[in-house]
Amino acid sequence: MASLRLTLPRHALRQTCLPTLHPTLSLPQTRKHSSVSADELTHFSALASSWWDPMGPSRILHLMNPLRHEFIASCLAEGSPSPTTEPRATLNYLDVGCGGGIFAESLARTIPLNTNTAPTPTLAATMTAIDPSTDLIRMARSHARNDPTVDAHLRSGKFRYLNTTLEDVIAGTAPTTTESSSPGSSSSQDLSQNSNPAQYDIVTLFEVLEHIDPKTSTPLTFLTNCLKALKPGGWLIGSTISRTLPSFLLNQVIAEAPWPIGVVPRGTHEWSKFVNPDEVKGWLQEGLMRVADSGVYRGGRAEVEGMRWKCVGAVYVPGIGWKMVKGSEDWGNYFWAVRREF
């Protein structure tokens, strides 16, 4: 699920009208091999009503969305999943652990309403956003209907919110019909009939990796499943927090301190789950080998030669906003990306 933090807070801005949520949290049963943590699911589902609150626990994270788009655009500039040389909005996105939809909704706004509209730097054609929390998906759908453009994409099927897990998407058992789907729209397609899960050009997981449940899964297994959802040539793009002393002080001690110092609820982070860039890179190298050959569990360097890897730190400067700062990865927050080569 999405996470919160001092430098990478998670859930943001309130509209004047917030959707009414069921008084009890609706939590789907987690599968035996699911990466979903029941404790994390309960924690973030409880924040549903404040997810879009501009003065709530997610206010800093909402400022990060422009930087997410900027980082994605930088990846596409280095190598587009599309074989066409002319920039066109043809890319299919999957947002894993979308939470209340801060990034997913902002990306959906960039999807052209018609073929005559100039594409944005992220070249998005469709967006599928998934989260295991029923309350968050319900709230995200309701909030998205406030924007006519986003609502139009929900109705056409270009934008979908699915209450499901990554594991179900990979297995082809994820539900695909949304409340906003119109009969015959592409969002009504049954992915359970698709034996090839590699259908996305871009897979994103922002502030998700540090919330994997170690009792039921591992970051390696989770990232390997993300890579399985990618088409050859596609990018897996994410952000997380380094497990260092500066990140502990910033993202846990200060960020979770009582108001007015703290910016996220206590219990949002668990420092031991933070991951360093070299760990992410190593898991991705192993994951690429497993995707290439499910029988490979350890391989030589030849298996990952030419791997396209990007990593850059993200720093929040009060009064200025988020900035990418090369070399600041160990301070706390950072973006990372890997390309699944053709």
Automatic annotation (TrEMBL):
Enzymatic class: transferase
Compartments, as annotated in UniProt: Mitochondrion inner membrane
Bilayer topology term: Peripheral membrane protein
Catalytically driven reaction(s): a 3-demethylubiquinol + S-adenosyl-L-methionine = a ubiquinol + S-adenosyl-L-homocysteine + H(+); a 3,4-dihydroxy-5-(all-trans-polyprenyl)benzoate + S-adenosyl-L-methionine = a 4-hydroxy-3-methoxy-5-(all-trans-polyprenyl)benzoate + S-adenosyl-L-homocysteine + H(+); a 3-demethylubiquinone + S-adenosyl-L-methionine = a ubiquinone + S-adenosyl-L-homocysteine
Gene Ontology MF annotations: 3-demethylubiquinol 3-O-methyltransferase activity; metal ion binding; polyprenyldihydroxybenzoate methyltransferase activity
Residues annotated to bind S-adenosyl-L-methionine: R68, G97, D131, F206
N-terminal signal peptide: none
Stretches the record annotates as Disordered: 174-194
GO biological process terms held by the UniProt record: methylation
HAMAP family given in the database record: UbiG (MF_00472)
Full protein name: Ubiquinone biosynthesis O-methyltransferase, mitochondrial
